[in-house]
Amino acid sequence: MIHEVDEGLRRLLGECALEASGIEVVFDAPTRDWAARRSAPTVCVFLYDIREDATRRGAGDREVYDADGHVVARRAPARWFTLTYLVTAWANRPQDEHRLLSQVLACLVATETLPARLLTGSLAELGLTVGLDTAEAGLDAPTAADVWSALGGELKASLGVRVRAPLAGISTAVAPPVTEGLVARSAARDSGGDATPGRRLRYPGTTDPGPYGFAGPRERQPVPARRRRRGDHRDDSRGDDQGDRRP
Q: Pvc16 N-terminal domain: from which residue to which, for each copy (predicted)?
């Protein structure tokens, strides 16, 4: 899922005319050594924090269907994670870096969710919304100063970008649908000691006769009316007799 979010961000920034301008989009850690080797205008999108959003954790598996509408698997619910990026612009002059960073900011701020056309892999398959927050205050993640200190570099103007993306749950394959009739065998044995062959019950729509033939579906017989018990008859007779013996 992480590499699919990276690809979505790369495609989004590519639509902002960065690639057309010859500006490279990379996901490297902007360390001091990396900065010394850089030779062209670059936008660095560095992932430095990953946390799960436990408030969005669901329960219950969902069914996965094939093209014919049959259930082929059951998938656990997706789990949501927040990916935090440090976005920086690199050029020969600070003015060029600020102009480039402004272009990136305008592109990211105008996008609240990654468009479906930019999603690949499991993100595209799930069809869920991938949220995007840019330069938002109160990000629950290490500050930019802490990140630069850990990287061993000098503090630089940067954008904090937070992506909320789902991680697909584990899929468990299910048994294929039943296509043959039920075979019923009795416990009786013939004189030779062999078991009596069973009879295969045919489901509607099946055409395979099977090795033992088919038992046709039985028609439901009407349930006979419940007979009156003798005790009830005697009671009724007794009541009638008593009713006739009036003074």
A: 4-179
pTM: 0.66
CA pair distance 85, 2, nearest whole angstrom: 12
Look at residue 56 and give its three-state secondary structure: helix
Q: Percentage helix, strand, coil, to 5, in the chain?
A: 30, 25, 45
Contact 87, 45 (CB under 8 A): yes
State how far Cα 69 lies from the chain centre.
Answer: 17
Sign of CA dihedral 51, 53, 58, 59: positive
CA dist 109 and 68 (Å) reads 42
Q: What 3-state class would DSSP assign to 230?
A: helix
Q: Is CATH 3.40.50 correct for 2-173?
A: no
In 3D, which of 148, 172, 173, 171 has the Cα closest to residue 158? 148
Distance CA 14, CA 91 (A): 18
Helices 94-109, 2-14: crossing angle, 10 deg rounding: 110
pLDDT per residue as tens digits for the range 10-40: 999 988 877 667 889 999 999 999 999 988 9
135: left (phi over 0), alpha (psi -120 to 50) or beta: left
Across the range 170-191, mean pLDDT stands at 67
Query: β-strand 159-167 against 79-90: which pairing, if any?
Result: antiparallel
Residue with tokens 């990396």: 34
- The β-bridge partners of 162 are 84, 133
Torsion angle in degrees (nearest 10) through CA of 93, 161, 5, 19: -30
- Backbone CA torsion sign across 102, 105, 109, 115: positive
Q: Return the domain boundaries, the chain.
A: 2-173, 178-221
